[in-house]
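hi support,

uploading two proteins for the ticket. first:
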Amino acid sequence: MVTRRRMIGAALATGGGVLLVRTTLRPAPSAATTAAAKDAGHAHPAGAAAPDPGPDAGPALAEKFTTALPLPPVLSPVSTDGGADTYAVTMLRSYARVLPGRRTEVLTYNGAFPGPVIRARSGRPVVVRQTNLLDDPVSVHLHGSAVPVDSDGGPMNLLGAGATRTYTYPNDQPHASLWFHDHAHHLESEHVYRGLAGTYLLTDATEASLPLPAGRYDLPIALRDARFDTAGNLVYRMDDAEGRATVLANGRPWPKVDVAARRYRIRLLNSSNLRFFSLRLADGGPITQIGSDGGLLERPHTTDTVDLSPGERADVVIDFSRYRPGTSVVLTNSMPPGPAEHIGQVLRFDVGRPAPDPSSVPDRLRTLPPLGPVARERTIVLKVEEGGAGVAPLGLIDGRQYDPARVDAAVAFGTSEIWTVHNANTDIPHNFHLHLVQFRVLQRNGAPPGPEEGGLKDTVRLMPGESVRLQATFDSYRGRYPYHCHLLDHSAMGMMAQMEIA
């Protein structure tokens, strides 16, 4: 188990930041990526980023805990014919009122910032017609899903400017709190930073049978950081973890959340490019974690801290009946980098009157399938190599940058494998995301994982020097799928590889 102290210590070892990659250059596209982008109608240039605009102006422009937490809009299907729910989504530039009195240009799905929510049910397919009205090519990835390769949203499966593509999600998997985001190689980092991310909540009979908080008491909250200039514009620079001092929850800086004095289910998503969060209530109050990336844990566990690397999710229940009406409690973050007075606070819960609460958290939430026999073991090594002056760093897996023409791991369909993933950097954290499959964490640094990692996962954190042993079964679809670091700047630098399941 990674304790908060270990995570903070690792971060402080990098000089107060989560990253030690200091480049301000956009990584140069490979020939294959440039060609694919041209085929899609756009070639994204490499080159130096804009001059540094100075410190993040967000904290000076937004007073903490004065804006209400917005809830992302829930999409309605345009059709429910043929046994599937069909949605129409358009990617376009829009403006959002992120900071008081200012308009911020953002990239959106259907004009929503934060991105919208799609609610789905296991066994009932979802079809999404995505239309790209942006200038760049995009690729829509449903993170955590088991889908055919043509709907996975791979880094080279680009949807050009002005084009429309249909993505089909069979939902032949158990419940999970998933999310969708852009995955176009070299562009994914900036696109997600500027807003191309949304929530996909998949439920099933197992989850629906439990008396967990529901309806208005079930809150999806996407956390991230950002950097603004004095006009309220988002400032994007590669590897800018230290420059982003504004914490956003559902697209608003340091919001307040009015809650009744009862239990709430809160679905936390770390949608940051780079930032790790270590979350706790300011009074040290109990948080009951009931789920992670791949849905509910087998049993709930009570903690005072929830750690999330980029792309990870945690499903928690907080019982606000322990507070008197009129009490306020801040959700804090103890992970650097950045000024503690800004990045150390996330949002504030303002507790009102009691409300009827028929909900409870059962001692048993689900039963996970047993781990099957192992056909093969592999070792995967993640590393960032810094370049010299004016040279972009390289993101490497097993010593190589991503090449879409290369197969890095040949996997036999229907088999189960154990992968030991190692962070070879001593001063830079990573994490690891496998497309297509949910996996089980077997060991962390040779020891059993903590209860928070005891369920199904698709993204796992790796602090400097750490190793994680995981097991996955590849029995849903054949084809080529990526695996990569989900610190999106690292994957944009090439820290991505490809498996072929056949």
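and the second one:
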Amino acid sequence: MQVSQRIGGILGGGSDGWDVFNRARDMIGDGVAVTELTIGEHDIRTAAPILQDMHRAAMAGHTGYAAVPGTNALRDTVAKRVQDRTGVKTTRDNVLITPGGQSALYAAHMVTCDAGDTALYLDPFYATYPGTIRGVSCTPRRIATRAEDAFQPRAADIAAAAEGAKSLLINSPNNPTGVVYSRATLEGIAQVCTDHDLWLISDEVYDTQVWEGEHISPRALPGMAERALVVGSMSKSHAMTGSRCGWIIGPEDVIGDLINLATHTTYGVPGFIQDASVYALEQGTAFEEEIADPFRRRRAIAQRVLAGQNTVSLVPSQGAMYLMLDLRSTGMSGEEFANALLDAHQIATMPGESFGEAAAGHLRVAMTIEDDAFEAALKTLCAFAQTCAQG
């Protein structure tokens, strides 16, 4: 017996990009002390008051089936948050609560694309993007961004790839590059979507982690509210990665269709997690800034360390919990360097190639260990890069 082509083809016949990460985890399993700068997992855990509220809700009996679209309380809270931040009128009818951002990405493609359609995404990309598109039986079409543009997408490149496509997936603040798309970039993207009748799927899970510039949701641009689906999550903004609570914001009729999809797939999110998410969101921006502050600090540490050498270059670090380092001066690919660094110094990073061809010769570093250890690891990485460049 064989599995379906849809499932068997999710990876497109290639690697899932996690080879170095998996090798590092195997080393850890063998008792080797590895410094992990790989995945976007906070080094702090969900704040105790959030967990206490989750416990209160569970003990109060909110452990049965919750409303499939999400509880009214959470949908209202998310809608208010979005409206306050974007100025776009948003009600609970524009909100579907999902089991995390990844579920929302899948659902967004399900509702915008039919089997066999072409769906666009930008390179570099978060590792699951092409697999998500294949998983809904669509054809992924990548659009390369350029290191010389600081990985800001060019509208002309998107337009050149848009013929026959149904959707475009973007992510700002961006994982893996740490780049925040400028207003000019987003206006160009919006124009292409309008000209080519594309759905825009905007992954905004890092919207609270902006170090330079401003986060602009393309849904707020003229004419975009009716063709944009925005993905959000509690994972990054509130250190609630394991709680799996996210959302999609979109036109009311599309949300209605997505509720039908949720009824036949996830059947909603546990009520006690939704209650705790309401509590967390009600703590306001001060709490979100507290969660983001370690990454802001570590970005400053990285800028200081990298300023003291000339082998490793930092892609403009404007947002998210990652740094993208340019290692092309070493003459090595990102994968070669990441493997060599892991072997020589037991420091695990993610090769740029894990996130697409456009990031070849780069390295993604997650700022997810305590400050002193992070600084020491970066200094070791830079010294190792200098040795490789000279060798």
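thanks. also noticed: The two ends are 52 Å apart (CA to CA).
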